[in-house]
Structures are given as structure tokens and as C-alpha cells.
Amino acid sequence: MSATEPDRGADSWELRLYVAGETPRSVAALANLRQICEDHLAGKYTIEVIDLLERPQLARGEQIVAIPTLERRLPEPVRKIIGDLSNTERVLIGLDLRPER
Amino acid sequence: MAPPHPPPTPLEHCPTGISGLDEITSGGLPRGRTTLVAGGPGCGKTVLATEFLVRGIQLGEPGVFMAFEETAEELTTNVASLGWDLAGLAADGKLVIDHVKVERERIDQTGDYDLEALFIRIGLAIDEVGAHRVVLDTLEVLFSALDDTARLRAELRRLFAWLKARGVTAIVTAERGEGALTRHGLEEYVADCVISLDHRVAEQLAVRRIQVVKLRGSAHGTNEYPFVIDGSGLSVIPVTSFDLDHAASTEVVSTGVPDLDAMLGGGGWYKGSTTMVSGESGTGKTTFAAAFAEAACRRGERALYLAFEESASQLVRNMASVGLHLDRGVDEGLLRIHASRPTQLGLERHLTTIYQEVEAHHPDVVVVDPITDFTAIGTVVDVKALLMRIVDYLKNRQITTVFTSLLTDRSGEDPSISSLIDNWLQLRNLETHAKRDRGLFIQKARGMSHSNQIREFVLCEDGIRLLDVVPGAAPAAATMQG
User: Fold this and answer.
1) CB-nearest partner of A87 from B106, B111, B116
2) Helices B312-320 + B285-298 axis angle, to 10
3) What ipTM was assigned to the predicted interfaces of this complex?
């Protein structure tokens, strides 16, 4: 279990999606992410899409290995979720929007 | 200067620069391909991989180290004792160390993924320094961090293909598995070269071993070779000629004792031969060995004297008293005296020392004084095999070698050693008429019609002098010298 307190009530959610070019998987991941945010975080989220082909230094700086990687930058602590975000339940758990069962 | 990525040809080898490794891989790792280095914890995988990069940089080939287990700082600190300044190499733009941190508890998987970001990172690092060499240490960390093993395997397969397409010569390390070469079967992805490292303890001797399990397109030795990690990195002691294919020279070189040369038929013993000078303590073994080295220097040849019982200065002083001026050779840079005291457990290391000194000094003749009485170490078959390797190694280089050996038992003849030795000079204390004299005879001299006499000899101010034949009767009127 995470030692940190889930902060589902945070007002500002800063999310980053790391992709490498416009692949079907990254397009799907962004669509999935938008849907989840609208459903659960409407009005209090920002999504920044980073294309690592254009900014490869960020892959090193932010310790990105897999694509797509979703990074929850705020609220802290920073969390990383990899995959195309098609498994909504796991995304919600990963973002601490739903307690782990 | 070579272009950053020369088009690889299938059989081209990339010299690692690691002492001995290139010999057992027929010239190095397959260039432009990936080599898998597998082994248990602490067996030297990271050292080998790091040295591959450091030596590559010395050869003008920049490198990339993708560190999955250690931070750049940890890696830098860990290898500093081997004399490698990774931070300096990085600052000079010759090396990139990228610590790939993958922590399972912080990565949730929510669907399909690929490792494109890792590829991008490696590609970035390669481009930053124009790298020819890449190390991934240890990829298997990904298995514990990422779910969906099937996906991960597919991605690793793609990674190996990608590395090949980039034209870099890569080393991928992997943990040994239970009953398998690697825990996650990475060997099935690496078709070109697989190296296995091992570190085991046998009879209180810690022995590191390296084996080239697979090397496409090359006749490589399948033996396990011992190696050591010491102050200058990794050294493999290769068997260069287990098949005894070294060229036999017909050239003879002086023993340094004219009278002994005469006993051997005129000129001395064969160039590239191995001679054992054995005898009890105080019979003059070191003097014969020193005379041989000194004569080589007088001929303008290079000599390496490995002194395992005396310091260099003590040796020089003592030999000067019998007219052997080793200091001249030292001053001219022809003679190198390496003095160290081997401990019983350090036999393997001191044999490795021979190898390293030879590589550094390129001698024509080598003296090992004495070769430790390794039978005293017990029934360590490994150690004998090691000695055999050293003998073969020196022979293969056409280096004429003299070992001295303290034989405690007069009849003590170890057949396994004897078979390695071409010439065997035995020194004896002769006790005649309440007086101890020194005598010698040639036990054997391969391919030479040598004298079978027992000759008395003296150590005098101008070296070793043999006296007339003693049938055991009248003692020669000799001026004995201490």
C-alpha cells in the first residue's frame, strides 16, 4: 500500500502524457485519458502531451522508459502509469482516484 | 578518424581491449552486434561491461552506459578503484551514463505499451557522443518492473534488432538463472555472442572464470578461462596453444653461463623453450636465473624478472657480488624486475601477474624465481592447469623462460610439471670430504644432444664457472664463494 494519502479532492490536476510520435496507441491513450478526466476531474485538470521524438532529453530527465506513460505531476506525489490507458479501473487506481480493492 | 558508424561486416571483430578477452574471442566481440554477458551476482559483469567502454574510448570509440541498477555516481565510485575516471570521460564527451530508474511500485500498467522511450534515450545518448559501443546493465530489471512479459519480450527482441540497425557493438548483461544461462532466457535473442562469467570457490581458492558460450562465425575456444579483477581491470588468462601449435625455433640463446652452453652442445637452449632450474636452497638457482636474464640484456634483448622471494634491490645487490650486473639492464630499460611476495592463496593472482607484466614489458626472456611449489597447495588441479597456461602462453610468444623451483625431495619429480618443461637443470649440494660443493646436471634438454655429466660449479666474482668433471673422487681445488 502506498504510504501517501490519496488526494482525490485536489483542485488542480496536472497530467502529462509522454508519447513518441502519433501512433495509434498514443492516440488511443490520449482519447482514453481525456474521457477519464472529463468523467472524474472535469474542470480541474490540464493535460500536456510530450512527444519524446521532439524532446528526447525529457525521456532521460523524467525517467521515461515505456510509451505511452502518463505522469501525474500534481497533486504530489508524482505517479507514473504506463500503457494505453484502456483499462479505466486501473487508471483510476493508478491516479488515486479510486482506492485499490 | 573512422566514421561514427562504419558499416559492419559479418565477421569483423571489435577488440575489447580487455586483457586476454580478445585472444579467446578470436579478436574481440562481433562488431555491430550485441553480446550477452551472463553470470551470477558479483561475478564481474559490470566490470567487464565498463572496461569494454573504457578501453573502447582509449581506442577512439565513444561509449554509452545504460545503467539499470546503479546511478551514474554509484557506478563511477565503484570502478574508481580500477583507475577508471568515468566522470572525466563523460566530461570529455566520450561517455554517457544514463541511469534508467524503473521502480515497480511507481508504475501501474493500464494497457498496451512499448519501450520506445527507452530506445529514444539510448539513441539520444549514442548521438550525443557518437558512440560506437553501448552497454545495457542489466536489462532484466525491466522484468521485475513491468507486467506483460510477452509484450516485454517482444520489445526486447525489437531492441536487439534496433541496436544492430544502429551499428553499435553492444554488451547486454543478464543474471544467471536456475539451470539456465539467464533468468529470463535472454540468450535466445542474442544470436551472435554469449559470454558466461562465473565466480566460485574451490579448496579455499576463489576462482573467477569466463567462457565464450557462443560466438557466431568464429573458431573460439570453448574452455573456461580463469580471470582476475585487479587494480587495472579484468584479465583473462587464455590458453593460447592447448593444441601445442607453437612454432619450434631452431635458434638457440645463451644460458648466460658459457660452460653450461657448452654442455648443451654449444649455444645454449632453444629460443622459446621453458627451463626449470631446480635445487635445494642455497644451490644457486637464482644465480643461474639472473645470469640468463643478464646475458639477454647484454645481447640487447628485453628481460622480465619476476622475483617472488627477494626485493629488486636485494636481488641486484646479491647478483653484483657474483659479477652479474642486473642494474645495467634496468638502467637501459631492458630489464624489468617485478618483485612481490605471493601468498599461498594468491597463486592464481601471481600467475596472472606474469601475464600482465609480459603484456606490459614485451620481454624476449622471462625468469620466474621461484615458481611456487604448488604441490604444497594441495591437490588443486586448477592451479596446475594455470601453470600450464602460463607456460603455453610464454611459449606461444616465443619467450624463452626460466623457472626456478625449490625441490625439497631430491627424487621429487612431478610428471605433470616435467612434461611442460623442455629443459631441466638440476642443482645439487655435493657433500665430499667434509665439504659441501655445488654440482649440476642436465636432467633433460629436449631436442638437444646434451652432456649427461654431473659437473661441479662455483659462483665467483665473474659469474658461474663449471669445473672439471667430478667422478666423485678428488675434490676440485676451487675458490669457493659465498
Assistant:
1) B111
2) 90
3) 0.90
